[in-house]
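ok so heres the complex, four chains, lmk if somethin looks off
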Amino acid sequence: MIKVTIWNEFLHEINNPIVASIYPEGIHGAIAAGLNCDQISVRTATLAEPEHGLSEETLNDTDVLIWWGHLAHDLVDDEIVERVYNRVLAGMGLIVLHSGHASKIFRKLLGTPTEQLKWREADEKERIWVIDPSHPIAAGIGEYIELEKEEMYGEHFHIPAPDQLVFVSWFEGGEVFRSGVTYSRGQGKVFYFRPGHESYPTYYNQEILRVIANGVRWAAPSATTAPSYGHSEPLERILVKS
Amino acid sequence: MIKVTIWNEFLHEINNPIVASIYPEGIHGAIAAGLNCDQISVRTATLAEPEHGLSEETLNDTDVLIWWGHLAHDLVDDEIVERVYNRVLAGMGLIVLHSGHASKIFRKLLGTPTEQLKWREADEKERIWVIDPSHPIAAGIGEYIELEKEEMYGEHFHIPAPDQLVFVSWFEGGEVFRSGVTYSRGQGKVFYFRPGHESYPTYYNQEILRVIANGVRWAAPSATTAPSYGHSEPLERILVKS
Amino acid sequence: MIKVTIWNEFLHEINNPIVASIYPEGIHGAIAAGLNCDQISVRTATLAEPEHGLSEETLNDTDVLIWWGHLAHDLVDDEIVERVYNRVLAGMGLIVLHSGHASKIFRKLLGTPTEQLKWREADEKERIWVIDPSHPIAAGIGEYIELEKEEMYGEHFHIPAPDQLVFVSWFEGGEVFRSGVTYSRGQGKVFYFRPGHESYPTYYNQEILRVIANGVRWAAPSATTAPSYGHSEPLERILVKS
Amino acid sequence: MIKVTIWNEFLHEINNPIVASIYPEGIHGAIAAGLNCDQISVRTATLAEPEHGLSEETLNDTDVLIWWGHLAHDLVDDEIVERVYNRVLAGMGLIVLHSGHASKIFRKLLGTPTEQLKWREADEKERIWVIDPSHPIAAGIGEYIELEKEEMYGEHFHIPAPDQLVFVSWFEGGEVFRSGVTYSRGQGKVFYFRPGHESYPTYYNQEILRVIANGVRWAAPSATTAPSYGHSEPLERILVKS
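and the predicted structre for the whole thing:
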C-alpha cells in the first residue's frame, strides 16, 4: 500500500464559480477519487490548514506527495517547504502538477527558475506524445493522450536537462513542451507532469489519472539505505609517504 | 509473478574442476536458487540446448532474461541473438552479468565494442559503491558491497554514457569501474552488473543476489503500448500552401 | 581548420528532375557551399565513387563526416561502414542528416532500429524549437527555426535516450519529433539533425546551415588520448589473501 | 579571447603558514599563472574585496568564473550569489573547484545539499580516471591523472545525476568519487572538478591545469539567443471550439 498525500492550494475552486463547477470537491478531491485503489491510499492537504496540512507526522507517513498550486506559491511557508525538501531527499516521492512548476519546492529542488516558460489560455488542443515507451510512467497509455482544450505551456521551459524525458506535448498554436520529466534528488524521485489547468476537467480524464497513478508507483520510495556523509575513516591501509 | 529465464553458457563449470566445485549446479543454478521467491519464477537455459534454450516460445514467456557468458560468445547463433534483441525492444528486460559485457546481444544493443575494458585476475578486493541511492536497483544495499576476491574490470569501459549510473567499483589494484549501469532500448530495459567471475563464489553473496533481484523487478516490462511506425495520416488539417 | 567530408548518396538529384532543379550541384554541393569558411575546409564523397569516396586515406584526413542518404542505404558496403564506425570510435565527428537516420552507420552506432519513425510528405510547416539554449549547436539561433514546407517525421523515433536533446520539432499535422540529438561513442561525437528532405530547398536556409556548422565545430575531435584496453598490471600492490 | 575571473576566498593562504608557503601568490594566483595564454585572459577576485571583487561590471565582462572557497562560504553575500547565479543562467560559464562544492552558488544551482560527501585528510594517493574520452575537458590527458597526496572525497556525493560524467577518482583508502561532472543551467555551463586541497601543490600540476583550461574553453558562452518567457501569442491559428 502506497500512502499518497495530495496537496492543493484550493483557492480557485473557492473563488471562481466556473472552477468550482468543474471541481466541486476541489482539484485534490478529483485526483483523490481517481487514484484511490487497492494499492494506493490517499489523503489530502490544503494551504489553509495548519502547517498547510503538512505536519511532520503527515509527511513522515507519506510515500508520495502530489503538489498542485498556482495563485499563492509565495504564501507557502518556507519552513514547510524546507520540511518537504528534506523528506524528498530522504526518499519521499514528489509529483508536481501543471502550475506547480512555479512552486517554491520545485524551484528549490531543481535549482533553476522553473517558473519561466511560455503560456497562453486559449482553449487549445494538446497532444501529449509518449517519448520513452520503456518508462513505467507511460504504462497503459497509447501513442499519445489528446486533450481537447488545455492551457498552452511552451518551450523554453527553464528546467535542468531531465534524467528521463517521458512525454512531449504538441499544441495547436505552434509550440512544444517537455510535459513529463523525471529527476532524482538524493533518495527521492521527482516527476513533473504538465496538464491540469483549473478551468478544464483534465483531472477526470482516465489517461491523465493513469499517468499520475503510474507516477505514484514509480516515485514510491525504494527502501534504499540512507547514505552517510562527513569525516570518514579509511577502509584500506594508507601508505605513509615521506 | 515475474518470469525470469537465466541463460548461462555453462562451460567453465563442466571443463574446470575448480569452477565445478564452486558452482556444482552451474552459475545459472546458483542464481536461480538465489532468486526464486513468491514474486519471481525462474527457469534456466544453456548454450548446449537446442536453440540455446531460447525458443520463441520460451522468450515470449520471459519477462526478464539474465545473461552470463564468457568463453563462447561467438558460438551463440546470430538468429537467436536477433530473437533476443527483438524481444528486448518489445519490452523484455535484460540483465547482463560480468563477462556478458562481451556478448553479441550486449554489443548489438549498445552499439559500441563493449568487449573492451581493462581486466586482471589477481584475487583483488572489490568495493561496489552505491552512486544513486534513489534507484530501486540499490534498495536494501548499504553504502557499498565488499567482495573479498574478484576479477578486476577497469575503465575505460567502452559503453555509451549510461541512462543511469547506479554503482561504481573500487579495486585494490588502483582502478575504478562503472559496475551498475542501465539503458532503455525501445520498450525494454537493460541492466549491466559487473561482479561474478566464475572462479569466485560471488553468486552466493546475499547482497549480490539482492541487487540481481532488484534488477529483475526494475527491468520487468511496464505494459506500455507498443509504438507504431511508418507512413502516418495527419492528425490535424494541413494548410495547402501555394 | 576543421576538415569536413560531406557524404551524399547522390541519387535523387540524378534521377529526379525536381530534385535536380533544387540541388543542381547535389545536396552535398549545397551544404559544401554553405559550410566553407576560414575555419572549415570541405570535400565531398558520393556512393558511386570507388569505396564510396571514403578511402582510409580520406577518412583519416577527416575531422567530421556529414552523412546524407535515403534510397540506397543497403548499397553502402559493410566494409566501408565498419571503417567509418572505427573512425568515429577513434574520434572523428559524425553528423547524420534527415533520412540518414536509416543508414547502416547510424543504426550500428546507436544499437536500435533507428530507421523506425513516423513520416509523411505533405508540404507541412515545421517549427524546430531550441530545447537546450546552453548548447553550442544552438548558437546564433533564435527560439526556433521555421521551415515553411518539410517532410514530417514523428515520434516515436526509435533511438536510445540521447545524451543531449538540443531541438524538438512541431509539425502542422499534429506530431512532435526529437530533431537534434547528440551521443558520444568512444572518443567520437555524433549529432543527428532532422531537416533536409530532398524535395525542399532546406539546405539553402541560413539557420539550417548555421546549425550544421555549429555541429561541425562541436563534433570536431578533442585531441583526447586514446584509452587502452585488455589485460592490465596493477597500479597498486595487492594484498595476498590466504 | 576568453575572459576568466578566478575567485578565491583567500583565507588559508593568509592564516596558515604552510598553505602560504605552498601558494605564496594565493590559490588564485597559482591558477592564474597556469591559465594565462594567448586564448585566455585572467583576472582575480577575492572575498575581502568590495562586493567580493564581483561587481556587476566585472561579471558582465566575465566569460567563465572559477570558484575556490572553503572556510567562509557563509560570508559570501547572498546578493552577490544571486548576481553570479543570474549571470550563469544568462550564459557565463562556472568552474567550481574542490571545496567549492559547499559554496552557496553551487548549492543554489544544483538544488541538492552539495556540501554533503565523505572526506578525510590523510595524504592519500588519488587517481583521477577519464570516464568520457570524447569530452573536450579530458583533451590531452592520458588514461588518468595521479596525485601523490590529496584530500579524500568519497561517495555518496549529494549532487543530481550529472549531464556528463568526465572523471571518477580512486583513493588509496578505499573510496571512489565523481571528480569531474558537468551541468547545463539555462544558457550557462557548469563544471565541477574535485582536486585542489589547500595543503597540497595540486594547482601547479600541469595536467590539473590542463583540465581547468579545457574546462574554461568548454564552459565559455555559446552566443546562443536568450529564450523569452511569459504570455505568448499563438504562432498558428487556433480552432474555435464550441
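quick notes: Chain D has a mean pLDDT of 97. thats all i got rn
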